[in-house]
Amino acid sequence: MKFFVDTADTKDIAELYETGLLDGVTTNPSLIAKSGRSFLEVVAEICKLVPGPVSAEVVALDHATMMREAEVLRKIADNVAVKVPLTIDGLKTCKALSDDGTKVNVTLCFSANQALLAAKAGAAFISPFVGRHDDNGFDGMELIADIRLIYDNYAFDTEILVASVRHPVHVLESAKIGADVMTAPPAVIKSLFNHVLTEKGIAGFMADWAKTGQSIL
Ligand code: G3P
């Protein structure tokens, strides 16, 4: 499963990229607002930091303006994936851009039927929001499993990009179901490294090693 980080904070992105485990980045208008930076500048900087896909979202609601915005976004760098909302205009834009060779990430997906539409529109990625699904009393992981089943039934190439990931169990369940990608905030990705027994084990080994009085170097 690929790991994308869901942030527009370039310091966090650079730090995670150094681990060698980061495959891409997702942003959205809220994350850009949080960064306090110019949208086009920050996306250009992220695209230089990470060679994998970097999702940059249109903010227009009509197809014609989305196409004009997408034109600006895809010119930033070859690794920009244009993000569009799951609406009729968004999917029209997805189809036009995908037919033209641009990677499109269809966002704000909350049903398996919506995911089916996005795949038919040629989306490179579908972004089901599991955290917001759970928040509203639905089962986010059931949604991922349904989309996996449907995409496999018809051999769709669209990658399932699990979004709105809030905790390590979302990551674990996504991997068990066979999602292609998950995108999570930096703190969630960092928490995946942690285990109390790993820390305890290291402390024990270090204490015993100190008793030997030896050094490797
Ligand atoms: O980028 C889309 C998605 O990951 C947003 O997550 O936590 O705002 O629901 P969240």
- Give the N-terminus to C-terminus distance in angstroms: 37 Å
The count of strands amounts to 8
String of helices and strands: EHEHHEHEHEHEHHEHEHH
* Unreliable sequence segments: none
Report helical residue fraction.
40-55%
What small molecules does the structure contain? SN-glycerol-3-phosphate
**Binned strand content:** 15-25%
- Could you describe the largest sheet, including whether it forms a barrel? 8 strands, parallel, barrel
Separate helix tally: 11
- What structural category arises from helix and sheet content? alpha/beta
Rg over C-alpha atoms, rounded to the nearest angstrom: 19 Å
Outline type: globular
Strand neighbour order, sheet with most strands = 1-2-3-4-5-6-7-8
Rounded mean pLDDT score:
98
Characterise this structure.
By secondary structure, this protein is of the alpha/beta class. Helices cover 52% and strands 17% of the residues. The chain contains 11 helices and 8 strands. The chain has helices at 10-17, 29-35, 39-49, 63-74, 88-99, 112-120, 130-135, 140-153, 168-177, 186-191, 196-212; strands at 2-6, 24-26, 54-57, 80-85, 104-109, 125-128, 159-162, 181-184. It has an 8-stranded parallel beta barrel, surrounded by 5 helices. β1, α1 and β2 (24-26) form a beta-alpha-beta unit. α4 packs across α5 (88-99), α6 runs parallel beside α8 (140-153) and α8 (140-153) runs parallel beside α9. The longest helix is centred in the last third of the chain and has 17 residues, at 196-212. The mean pLDDT is 98. SN-glycerol-3-phosphate (G3P) binds at residues 6, 26, 28, 129, 131-132, 163-164, 183.
